[in-house]
Every structure is written in structure tokens, then in C-alpha cells.
Amino acid sequence: VSIDAPASTTGGADITFNLPVADGSSGQALTTNASGQLAFSTIDTGNGSIKAWGYFTGTDTGSITTAGSGNVASISDEGTGHYKVTYTTAIGSANYAVVANSVDADATGRDDGDMTIHAHNTAYTTIRFFQQQGHTNMGRLDRDPDGFNFIAVA
Fold it and tell me: Which of the residues 9, 105, 125, 128 could staple to 118 if both were Cys, CB 3.0 to 4.6 A apart?
């Protein structure tokens, strides 16, 4: 394929691009090696991009509803205050961070507490959240919040 350069370019030279022989895959883009050779490539999203996110409600009733999510295959209730999120596509690296918080939708204050995140598994395919509130004579008390949200960035 030849592209005739506009007269206003330096030298006004034509540019020749060599197209790849085969079609690319879904989601790929046409890239160049800066010497006219084109190829289909998967674009790297790079560091600092969102790998997964979610907002879940109904965790206090046992009827979890996904209010919105990205790269989340499922969420399961693993007991009072304990939830497991399974990613659709693995994060792919141990170098990622997760931020989460519980939601006190009914403003009772009983759902406030510490959201603990256990993000590591060897395949980086799941993440676990633990919600605890206050101090009791015997330690922390597991609580089901009204909901919670999270974001994973790598």
C-alpha cells in the first residue's frame, strides 16, 4: 500500500507500508516498526491500569447482587463477613494493588469496620475480602456489610 504524502511534508516523499499477510485477531491493532512494515499486535495496557473492579450489594442479606463490575466472573459468600471474587481474566502478575471499602447503605453505623484484603493466590485469579467491626471481649467481630466495592490496579 502506498500513501502519497501531502506536499506540505518535509521532502513531500511517498511512504510505502507493507501489510501483513494474515488478518489480525479480535482486539489487535495495526502497528509499525517505523520502517514501513505493518503487523497486528496486542496493545499492552501497561502499568497503572485497572485490572478489575466491582460494586456488590446485598452482602448483609445473603443475596449478593452485582451493581457493576469489570473482569469479575463471580462473587461468593464464604461466611459472615467473608467474600471471594473470581476474576474473569487473571491479573497475571504479583505486582498489583487492591483498594476496597464496605458500604453502610442504611446508615446504621453497624456496617462500618475494617475491610481486610487477601489478594494473593498463585494464579492471581481470585481475591478475598474480610469485614470485621469493633472490639469485643474476645476480639474482632465478623460483620456482613450492606455491600462493598473494590478496584485492582497493576
Answer: 128
Look at the pTM and tell me if it is higher than 0.85.
Answer: no
- Give kind and range of the element (H or E) at residue 149: strand 147-153
Conformation bin of residue 56: beta by default, left when phi > 0, alpha when psi is -120 to 50: beta
CB 90 within 8 A of CB 123: yes
As given in the structure block, the three cell numbers for residue 153 are: 490496579
pLDDT in tens, 15-62: 777 888 888 887 788 888 888 888 888 776 556 788 888 888 866 666
Determine which helix (DSSP H) or strand (DSSP E) holds 77, and give its type and residue range: strand 72-77
Q: Are 7 and 26 in contact (CB under 8 A)?
A: no
